Amino acid sequence: MSSDPSVTDEASTNPAEVTSVEPAAPTSDVAPASKPTDSYTKLAMRNMVRKGRRSLLEFGLTTVGVLALLIGLSYLTR
Predict the structure, then answer these.
(1) What's the pLDDT score for residue 19?
(2) Is-contact 61 54, C-beta < 8 A?
(3) How far apart are CA 10 and CA 12, in angstroms?
(4) Residue 51 within any structural domain of the chain
């Protein structure tokens, strides 16, 4: 609405003629689609960059564990 009191809105002159009230913005539980959600891979990479030392330590332990598993299996099945 305008701040000038001399300007009147046509709908406000006769409120009996207004049959429906429309909300200014649609109300829904869904978030606006302006920002898509990030993928799991993108979030994981962002987390690795943020926690660099811990991520490298866990990656190294995982690599050592997989290599130990493969070497152990190859030793058992020779």
Answers:
(1) 60
(2) no
(3) 5
(4) yes
Question: Which H or E run includes 42?
Answer: helix 40-50
Q: How many domains does the chain have?
A: 1
* pLDDT per residue as tens digits for the range 9-24: 555 555 555 565 555 6
- What is the DSSP code (8-state) at residue 15? G
Segment 33-62 shows an average pLDDT of 86
Q: Tell me 77's DSSP state.
A: T
Name, in order, each residue with C-beta under 8 angstroms of 11's C-beta and a sequence gap of 6 or more.
Answer: 17, 18
Helix (H, G, I), strand (E, B), or coil: what is residue 22?
coil
Residue whose C-alpha is closest to residue 70's, from 55, 59, 62: 62
pTM above 0.85, yes or no: no
Tell me the residue range of the domain where 63 lies: 38-78
At residue 72, the pLDDT reads: 97
